[in-house]
Structures are given as C-alpha cells and as structure tokens.
C-alpha cells in the first residue's frame, strides 16, 4: 500500500512539473538607451556643455510602478577624477508611452575629452529590475573648438511624425535648432522595437540656416515601411557646405521616440491669391501641399494647369539673376498627353524647356507642367508664368499622387486667378464625375465620386444632384463604405426619388473636400447613364448649371478589360520607357493581379519580357529598356472567376 502511495505521489509531482513547465513565462522587463547611443559603427556619442544634454530610454515589458533614472560616471564605476560622485538624474515619463527622458548639464568636475558611461536604470518601485549602459565622451567649450550640438523640435519627443510615400520612396522631415558653429545636420531613423538597442540608419542631411535652425529630409531605405519607424535622430556636423557632411565631423546629437503616420495630401494652397500684374512680365507662383494635419508634404508630385488669356500663355523659369534659378525644375507631362510646346526663361522670354498643351477649339488652350523633383522640404513647388496679352489666367495645381498626369477627384487641389493688366475674372464653378467610363460586374455596387471646384479650389457644402438611368428601371443607388449622406429630392416632379421614365434621383452636400460620394447598382447587363450637377438653385431640376456625365457598363461577373499606355513614343536605343495602364471590370478581378508585359518586333510574335502587379485601384506600371523599335501589349490570364484580358498595342520607336 505504501508503494502505491509513493508511486501516486511521484505521478502527481510529475504532472505538476509538466503543468508548471507548460505555463507561459512572464517576460522580464528590459530597458535600452535611445540616446546617447552609437549612430553607426565606431561612433562614440558626445556630451556637450553648450546646452543641456537630452537623454532618452525606452522600456519593454513595463514592471509595476516603473521608474527610470540616468547616471553619468566613470567607466566601470567608482569616483570621478579628482574626487566626487557620479551624477544621477531622475527621468520623466513621456506621456503614457514606454519612453523616459531627462536633461543633463555637465558640471565643471567632468574633464574635457575624457570618456564616461551613461547608465539607464529601470525600477519597479524601489527595486532595480533592468539597466543599460553607453560609453560617451565629454567635449566642453572651455577648450576650443566649441562642441556642436542640435536639438530636435519636430517631431517632439513622443509625438507623431508624418511620412509621405511617392512611388517607392517614403520621406519625412526633421526640424530643430543648432549651436553657433554647426554647419550641417545628419539625420537617422530606426525600426528597432521598444526596449531594444536601436539600430540606426542614415537617411539624409540638411544645412543649418543663418538663424541656426535646420530642416532635413529623411528618406527611408527601399523596403523599409514608414509605419515601422520608431525613433529618429539628428547629429551636428561642422563640414562646411556645399560639401556633403563627413561623418568624421559629427559632434553631439539628439534622438526622439516617434509614432509615424501616413501623410495624405488634403489641401493645396496657391499663392499669390487673386492678383493683378503687368503683361510682358513673369509672375512667380507657389503651390503648397499640406496633409490631413496641415503639415507640409515633402517630395509630392505636383501638376499644374493654366489657361488664358490666349494660346500664347507660357510657363517660365525665373532666372532673373545670372547665377540662381529661383523656381523649381518642371517638365511637360510624360503620361496621357502628347502635345508639347516650348516654355520660356524670365530673363529674355526665349524658349527654355517644355510644357504640355491641351488643344481646345475656341477657348484658350490649357497649358500643363509637372514637377521634376516634387515639393521641397517645406512642401512647396515654385514656378513662373508669362503672358504678353491682357486678360485672366486660371491656375489649378494638384498633388498627382498616382503620377498619371490626370487630375483625379481624390487628389488634393487648389487654384487662383491672375489678371494681366486688369483685375482677374471671378473663378468658375465646375464639377467632375469620376470614374468617367467604368466597367462593373452586374449586381455589384460601382463607387462614383463627384467633386465641386471653383477656380481649382474644392467647394464644401455644395448641393449635388445625381441622375441614374438604364439599362432598365431596376437600376438603383447603393451604399458605399465612404459614401456621403444622401436623400430623395424634395422639389420638382418626383415620386420616391424617381422620374416618370424610371430615372433615379438623389441629392446631398459635398464634404469639406468638395466631394460627394455615392454608389450605383444594376442587376442586369447594359449601361447606365449617370449625370451629376451642382444644383445652385436647389430646385432639383437640371438647368444651365455645371454638370458632368459618365457611363457605367455592366458586364457578367468576372469579366474585365486592361489598358496600356507609354510615357514616350520614341527613345534612344538602350533607353527606358514606362508602361502603365489599368484593369477595369469586376472589382474582385482588379487588384493584386499579375500583369504580363509582352513585346515584339513589328510583324513578329509577342514574348514575355517583364511583369507587374496591379494596385488596389487596378493600376499597374513597369519600366522596360528599349534597344530597338518594339510593340508592347499587356495580358492578364484567366483565374478563378476572373476572365482573361489583353490590352491594346503601343509602339515605341528606338532611335
């Protein structure tokens, strides 16, 4: 009996041990210095007495009652040279984040040029639970040259930081103050998680202005997502411009914990606003792109339309001084347009560069340029206009987010009127309805968007009415996820939002961006005519008010088409061209589709040369090298419920 009890006890102990081993272990708290840390291999961070040094540390797995302190003392501990104790500084938590910070002023007892340790200690109440250490050097201004130092002001410690993505490049802007002898600033970012030793990546630099402020663009490495950035840093550098900063000239630095967000272009401000100027002169104009939080957007692709007073209107480069061009580089649009003509120089009005020309019968032609390098770090794109005639020019600038050189309703825009030799005419009210000719699977809800603009500027709270007719009375309006509030018309001859001929009718108001969004659905194949207008009189009757129409083609589920265009119809042998287009049809068959790029010499068979993947809107693009004259076509193969489709043929001549 005793043996049985012993065996049972052993079995119970083994079960308990197994259960204990299977229980998840609680991760131990960790702390690591965010700054001072080594920004690159061999870098020893410097402390300076020009201003208080900014210490920061972040924590993983917070313990109960967390507290953090920093300590500065000799390497390995012990008393300071000449006596005295290490300096201890209590840290302050940054909001509710896992980051703590403190400021340390170097006392006179710390000799110039010596190396010390900065230690960060994490406490749970009174118990130390984790620590980190970093070797630093002391550079005091009592022995020339004075130490250079920077202080980040934006983003602030623990604040949000915007990143704008154009193509495959993501940009963010760091600003701050610098000490007197600082010439340039180098900037860094890290993707390391909280509580880890930050692995810094260099991402750009900026000059220090005469008022000792700086603005530097941080360009993330290809493949690094802006959403993964956890901290940024800036280091003072005394390399004289215009030479690029040499890392051997680095001095003291600053680093901040950040929370990234994606910048969405939300407004474009064009200056000067409604101005009268002299003909036969140049007028300098700027377009400022801002995001959803009114912060400037760097690197944004800006397109500009200008029309009037006649066909001789020219975009211009402001080169009034013999050395400096005060405007930004621009070019004629390289997609979806073919007509080009010369732009001019402001110094002599001679031909210089190119602008696009939208030929219009009757009214003045619309002129078109796009930025080459995108907006500056201040979010600005600057250009000039020249007119030898008296009259009004209407200017519209927009952020061409998808770089198709077409003004989309979802792209932020702004405008202004310029009067040459007279006061400018009032801006015109206009509406655009997009997409203009979509294909959609029958039974699906096709999203449509109407945008009200006046002189290029969005018009909020404008009353929009919409008609939808065909292919039969079953056509109806349907809800979309981002749809605007709408209602049946309350004026005119209507019954439950429908006309006697079956035309469906809704109305509503534009949002703060001038947009009115709705959906249309048909259960049958055929086409639906959609017309949207700005109902300025709010009588629900379409009269001589601004309007635009579109046609929706309803197809069987899974059907789709594909288009192809090219940015250049001819190129030097060995040069590259950009092929682009879109898949249109059943929404389930548009995004994340593999597009095969095919080419052939004229008269021969097509063969695969490259591939691309369509984005969320069905758009795709690819760059190919052209060594001889070729014809191109793109193809999507059948898969699942999606049909196969092949594009039109485009020809590129090699010269």
What does this structure look like?
With 655 residues, the chain is mainly beta. It is 3% helix and 48% strand. The protein contains 1 helix and 49 strands. The strands form 8 sheets. Strands 18, 19, 20, 21, 22, 23, 24, 25, 26, 27, 28 and 29 form a 12-stranded mixed β-sheet that branches. Strands 10, 11, 12, 13, 14, 15, 16 and 17 form an 8-stranded mixed β-sheet that branches. β8 and β9 (127-139) form a beta hairpin. It is globular and about 95 Å long. Mean pLDDT is 90; it is low at 1-23.
Task: List the topology elements.
Layout: H1 2-22, E1 30-35, E2 46-48, E3 53-60, E4 66-74, E5 87-90, E6 92-93, E7 99-104, E8 115-124, E9 127-139, E10 150-154, E11 159-166, E12 169-178, E13 184-190, E14 200-207, E15 213-219, E16 231-237, E17 250-262, E18 267-271, E19 275-277, E20 281-290, E21 302-307, E22 314-317, E23 330-331, E24 340-345, E25 351-358, E26 366-371, E27 380-387, E28 391-399, E29 413-420, E30 429-434, E31 439-441, E32 445-454, E33 457-458, E34 463-469, E35 476-478, E36 504-509, E37 515-521, E38 526-534, E39 547-555, E40 560-562, E41 565-566, E42 570-571, E43 575-585, E44 594-600, E45 607-613, E46 619-626, E47 630-636, E48 645-646, E49 650-654
Parallel strand pairs: 2-9, 11-17, 19-29, 22-24, 31-39, 42-49
Antiparallel strand pairs: 1-3, 3-7, 4-5, 4-8, 6-7, 8-9, 10-12, 11-12, 12-15, 13-14, 13-16, 16-17, 18-20, 20-27, 21-26, 21-28, 22-27, 23-26, 24-25, 25-26, 28-29, 30-32, 32-33, 32-37, 34-36, 34-38, 35-37, 38-39, 40-43, 41-43, 43-46, 44-45, 44-47, 47-48, 47-49
């Amino acid at each position: 009996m005793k043996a049985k009890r012993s065996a049972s006890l052993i079995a119970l102990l083994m079960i308990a041990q197994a259960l204990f081993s299977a229980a998840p272990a609680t991760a131990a708290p960790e702390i690591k210095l965010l700054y001072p840390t080594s920004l690159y291999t061999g870098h020893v961070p410097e402390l300076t007495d020009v201003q208080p040094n900014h210490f920061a540390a972040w924590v993983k797995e917070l313990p109960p009652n967390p507290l953090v302190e920093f300590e500065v003392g000799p390497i390995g501990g012990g008393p300071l040279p000449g006596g005295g104790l290490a300096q201890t500084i209590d840290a302050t938590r940054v909001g509710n984040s896992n980051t703590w910070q403190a400021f340390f002023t170097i006392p006179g007892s710390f000799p110039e040029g010596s190396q010390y340790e900065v230690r960060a200690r994490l406490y749970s109440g009174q118990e130390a639970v984790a620590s980190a250490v970093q070797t630093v050097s002391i550079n005091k201004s009592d022995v020339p040259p004075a130490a250079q130092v920077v202080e980040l002001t934006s983003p602030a410690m623990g604040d949000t930081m915007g990143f704008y993505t154009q193509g495959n490049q993501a940009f963010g802007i760091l600003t701050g103050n610098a000490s007197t002898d600082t010439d340039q600033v180098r900037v860094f970012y890290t993707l390391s998680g909280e509580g880890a030793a930050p692995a810094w990546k260099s991402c750009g630099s900026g000059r220090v202005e005469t008022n000792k402020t700086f603005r530097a663009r941080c360009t993330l490495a290809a493949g690094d997502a802006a959403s993964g950035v956890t901290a940024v840093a800036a280091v003072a550098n005394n390399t004289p411009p215009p030479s690029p900063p040499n890392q051997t000239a680095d001095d003291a630095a600053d680093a901040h914990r950040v929370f990234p967000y994606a910048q969405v272009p939300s407004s474009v401000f064009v200056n000067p606003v409604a101005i009268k100027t002299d003909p036969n002169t140049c007028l300098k104009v700027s377009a400022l792109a801002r995001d959803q939080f009114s912060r400037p957007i760097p690197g944004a692709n800006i397109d500009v339309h200008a029309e009037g007073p006649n066909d001789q209107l020219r975009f211009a480069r402001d080169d009034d001084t013999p050395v400096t061009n005060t405007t930004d580089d621009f070019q004629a649009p390289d997609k979806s347009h073919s007509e080009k003509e010369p732009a001019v120089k402001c110094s002599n009005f001679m031909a210089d560069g190119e602008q696009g020309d939208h030929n219009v019968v009757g009214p003045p032609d619309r002129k078109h340029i796009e930025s080459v390098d995108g907006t500056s770090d201040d979010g600005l794109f600057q250009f000039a206009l020249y007119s030898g005639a008296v009259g009004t020019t209407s200017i519209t600038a927009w952020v061409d987010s998808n770089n198709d050189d077409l003004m989309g309703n979802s792209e932020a825009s702004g405008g202004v009127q310029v009067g040459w030799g007279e006061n400018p005419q009032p801006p015109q009210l206009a509406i655009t309805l997009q997409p203009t000719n979509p294909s959609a699977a029958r039974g699906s809800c096709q999203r449509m968007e109407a945008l009200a603009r006046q002189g290029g500027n969005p018009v909020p709270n404008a009353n929009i009415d919409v008609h939808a007719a065909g292919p039969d009375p079953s056509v109806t309006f349907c809800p979309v996820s981002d749809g605007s509030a709408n209602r049946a018309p309350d004026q005119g001859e209507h019954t439950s939002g429908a006309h006697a001929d079956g035309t469906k009718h809704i109305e509503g108001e534009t949002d703060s961006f001038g947009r009115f969004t709705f959906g249309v659905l048909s259960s049958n194949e055929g086409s639906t005519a959609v017309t949207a207008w700005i109902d300025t009189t709010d009588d629900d009757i379409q009269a001589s008010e601004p309007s635009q129409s579109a046609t929706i083609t309803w197809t069987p589920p899974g059907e789709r088409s594909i288009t192809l265009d090219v940015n250049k119809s001819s190129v030097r042998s060995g040069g590259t061209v950009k092929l682009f287009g879109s898949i249109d049809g059943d929404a389930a068959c548009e995004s994340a589709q593999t597009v095969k790029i095919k080419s052939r010499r004229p008269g021969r068979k097509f063969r695969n040369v490259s591939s691309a993947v369509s984005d969320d809107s069905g758009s795709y693009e690819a760059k190919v090298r052209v060594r001889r004259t070729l014809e191109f076509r793109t193809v999507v193969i059948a898969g699942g419920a999606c049909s196969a489709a092949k594009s039109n043929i485009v020809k590129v001549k090699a010269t």
